[in-house]
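---------- Forwarded message ----------

FYI, see the UDP-glucose 6-dehydrogenase record below. Original note from H. follows.
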Amino acid sequence: MNISIFGLGYVGVVCCACFSRDGHQVIGVDVESTKVDLVNNGKSTIIEKSLEEQISISVKNNLLKATQDYRMAINHTDISFICVGTPSLSNGSINLAYIYEVAKQIAEVIKDKESFHTVVIRSTVKVGTLKACQEIIEDISGKVHGKDFGVVSNPEFLREGTAMHDFVNPPYTIVGTNSETSKSVLTSLYASLDAPIYYLKPEEAEMIKYANNNFHAMKITFANEIGNICKENGVDGHVVMDIVAKDTKLNLSPYYLKPGFAFGGSCLPKDVRGLIQTAKNLDLKTPLLSSLLKSNFYQIDRGLDLIYSTGSKKIGFLGFAFKSGTDDLRESPIVGVIETLIGKGYDLNVYDSNVHLSSLLGKNKEYVNSHIPHIYKLLKEDVNEVIEHSEVLVIGNNAKEFSEILPTIPSNKIIIDFVRVDKEKTSKDNYIGICW
């Protein structure tokens, strides 16, 4: 393929080397003559293992050249990768001026091109950037997206020091586009990589890189805070975290990485408070750990705001144990939501077969009677009674019966789902998901 790559910084020059290594004809584009001259002389613009050797080979084999002439580059290629910088502004947001400038340049040139052109954003950008670039290109060129050109979000996952290896060994390849032609182009381009390709909506693809990098930052910070507590207790933090990382069933797994409602139960809230207090007793600061309960309370407030926004006072809860398959009500976040609504005078009905059964058998009776007798009075034995009486139904845990009931709920009832009992549903019409 014939590829132009805008921006000869870290991401751009690695792309130049790797695509040309695969036999593609690559033209690197940059406004700085120094970078252009370096590449044309077989040199790298950054220090990276094996990068300069590959650039030298590609230039000698006439598979790679660089230029400041963007018109020539676009006219001689079918795919343009935008790899320019997106530096931070003073308020922390990112500067997209360079992205939009390249989009304008591409639009100016493809105005007179007859062939289909694919525009790929490789830089890290905020949600909505691809759509904005699509509109810029359509406005300036007069071309139609999907017919004359296509835009793609294709975030990179390169680590400094191992970028060449990471390029050909990614965890996956993300292709976010609404253009079937561009989807096919990217599929063909990355066919040689031994990694799955995930085809997403552009906005989902744009969010992936931010989610990944913030997750990495969180893990590093978490390990450091645990390490500090370990150090002050005479414990080797590396030993502790090495064992934590060996648990791939829960710790390093998708299990707890599903957006939804707040955590609760007998363990997590108690143990977070316990570790934070341990750190305080050692005069240690734990900004990340100390934020966990605050963030958890915010998710409860967010759930309440969704209920308030309906304007209805007749609310039914389907499930209020903190987890399906259990009757445990200790620190259940749904209990907090229900108690808040009771205090505000809402008309409530509650259904949870496990809680009802355990209260009858006495297993949970003492807790119910001593802590939440006002909620127990709202508990109904028949789920249909709750559905019929309520205008808004809140799904509080992912018991299997609720996924079966969901399609039968009348369309005049508003459904607020805290747990996503149906993995295919997203917020639409009378259905509202808390994070989807």
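H. also flagged this: Residues 202-232 form the longest helix (31 residues).
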